[in-house]
Write the C-alpha cells for this entry.
Amino acid sequence: MNRPPSLLITLLLSASALCEPRAARADDAPGFTRTEDVVYGRKHGMALTMDVFTPKEHANGAAVVWMVSGGWFSSHDAINARMIQEFLDRGYTVFAVVHGSQPKFTIPEVVADVNRAVRFIRFHAKDYKIDPDRLGVTGASAGGHLSLMLGTAGDAGDPKAKDPVDRVSSRVQAVACFFPSTDFLNYGKTGENALGRGVLKGFKAPFDFNKLDPETRVFRPIDDESKILEIGREISPVYHVSADDPPTLIFHGDADQLVPIQQAELVIDKLKAAGVDCKLVVKKGAAHGWPDIQQDLVVLADWFDAHLKPKQ
C-alpha cells in the first residue's frame, strides 16, 4: 500500500469505529447512559480512560469490552455509540477502552493497558452491576488483535501486586472481532516478518520496542534482532493459544491487503486444534473493512448471547 502512515492510521481507526467519529451523548439514545473518562489506570503520570455505556432497561448482567484501536492508535474521539448500539439494545454494558496510543507507546505497552482495563472492570463488577465471569471483548483491526491477545494471553493476575486491581484476572469469556493480526512473524506467508516491516512498514512506531536503562533512566531502543523476534512472538496471539481459551469468532475479508486473511486462518486453525469453540466468517471480495460492516454486529451480538449466558 502506498498511502502515507497518517492516512493509514485514520482509515484503521475509522474501521475500528465502523463509522465516522462522533461523541455520542445519552440524550442521543435514551436507552442508555454514558459515563465518560473513567480512569482505569495510570502510567507515566497520565490517566488511562474508558467510557462506560449502561443500558437503562433490560440489562443482562454481561459486558462487552470494546478495544477502541486502529493501527494501535487510540482516541476518545473515535468512540461512537452507534457502533455498539446492537450490544446496548440487547442489555450489555459496554466499556469503550482507550489505550496508550502509538506513536508514543508500543504494542507491548498497549497490551498491558488493555489487560489492566479488563482487571479494572472485573474488580468493579459489582459497581457496574455486571457478572465478572461474563465478559466479552471486541474490536476491529488492531482492536481485533488486542481482543485476541486478551482471549489467548489474558492471565490470572499477580497475587502479590500492591494494587488490588492488578491481583484480578484479565481473562475474558468470549471474543468476537474483525480482521485481526495474529502472527507478525509469518504475515501473509511463512517467514514474512511484519514487525513494522513489509506490509506494515507504515506502522513503525508501535513496533519501535525499547527498554529503560536502569542506570541512566533513559529509554533505549532494542536493536538485538533475536530480542525483537522474541517480542514479536509475545505480541502475536497465535503463540498463546491453549485449550482454555474462550469461544472466538472472527470476521475477515478475503481481499484484505493490509491484514491478510491468512492471519485469521492461522489462529482459527490453532484454536480448532486446541479444541476451542471458534468460527471464521469470510467476507468474499472484502478488503480491510466493508460498507455494510455494521450489519455484522448482529452476528457478533448473537455470539455473545450464546457464550455469555448466566451460569445455571
Q: What stands out?
A: The CA atoms of residues 62 and 134 lie 5 Å apart.
